[in-house]
Amino acid sequence: MNWFEGALSVKAVMMSDRRPVIKLVVDQKKKDKDTAFILRQAAQRQIPVERWPREKIDQQALGRTHGGILALAGDRNYQSVQECLDAPQPFIAVLEGIEDPFNLGYAFRTLYAAGCTGVLMGSRDWQTAQPTIVKSSAGASEQLAWCLCEDLGAAVRQCRQAGCVLYCAQRSDAIDYFDADFNQPIVLAIGGELRGLSRDVLEQSDQNIVIPYARPVRSALNGTSAVAAISFEVVRQRR
């Protein structure tokens, strides 16, 4: 179990139904509209609420940005590849090499805003990092379908067999991402700046894409920056 801090995180955890919520803790002096909304949602879901003094909440919380609201919740439920595909026009992201939970949260926030229908990642235990991911994503990580894959290559293959086109952010044999056709079911694979994408994913690429630079820069953008640039080109093309 983990403690989730702040109204955005608590609302996302409580309303997404991705994990069991054990209880809420609310500052005994809070009476604003947002708190009232959270309390109503908790009552509808029969989630216990405890009122604590601010000092006790400060002791329990890891930071000081909790705003007087905490949620104690269990492990997240992850989704299947098929659940990520169950959309009229899938936009699935494959993320590799983004290890920092803050950066992963930022990537989730961007992908959710851009209409991504699911995220595929290699198998890893993210449970202890969940509060950081949820907070840095502004709750978006709880809204997105998230699949942790024992065999990421097989998961990508399943998506391609379902009719998705795989675009890999990879410089070799690439076209500018502006020239890619994102107005169709797609899988967008983006790796971290250090390790990039795995061979199992790259070997299945239907088309590599690259972000053109305005200057002769040799270093790669970090993964979250690449996610932002390419994801909103998907948005532009699908409008």
From TrEMBL:
<dbReference type="GO" id="GO:0008173">
    <property type="term" value="F:RNA methyltransferase activity"/>
</dbReference>
<protein>
    <submittedName>
        <fullName>RNA methyltransferase</fullName>
    </submittedName>
</protein>
<dbReference type="GO" id="GO:0003723">
    <property type="term" value="F:RNA binding"/>
</dbReference>
<dbReference type="InterPro" id="IPR029028">
    <property type="entry name" value="Alpha/beta_knot_MTases"/>
</dbReference>
<dbReference type="Pfam" id="PF00588">
    <property type="entry name" value="SpoU_methylase"/>
</dbReference>
<keyword id="KW-0489">Methyltransferase</keyword>
<dbReference type="InterPro" id="IPR029026">
    <property type="entry name" value="tRNA_m1G_MTases_N"/>
</dbReference>
<dbReference type="InterPro" id="IPR004441">
    <property type="entry name" value="rRNA_MeTrfase_TrmH"/>
</dbReference>
<dbReference type="GO" id="GO:0006396">
    <property type="term" value="P:RNA processing"/>
</dbReference>
<dbReference type="InterPro" id="IPR013123">
    <property type="entry name" value="SpoU_subst-bd"/>
</dbReference>
<dbReference type="GO" id="GO:0005829">
    <property type="term" value="C:cytosol"/>
</dbReference>
<feature type="domain" description="RNA 2-O ribose methyltransferase substrate binding">
    <location>
        <begin position="3"/>
        <end position="79"/>
    </location>
</feature>
<dbReference type="Pfam" id="PF08032">
    <property type="entry name" value="SpoU_sub_bind"/>
</dbReference>
<dbReference type="GO" id="GO:0032259">
    <property type="term" value="P:methylation"/>
</dbReference>
<keyword id="KW-0808">Transferase</keyword>
<comment type="similarity">
    <text>Belongs to the class IV-like SAM-binding methyltransferase superfamily. RNA methyltransferase TrmH family.</text>
</comment>
<dbReference type="InterPro" id="IPR029064">
    <property type="entry name" value="Ribosomal_eL30-like_sf"/>
</dbReference>
<dbReference type="InterPro" id="IPR001537">
    <property type="entry name" value="SpoU_MeTrfase"/>
</dbReference>
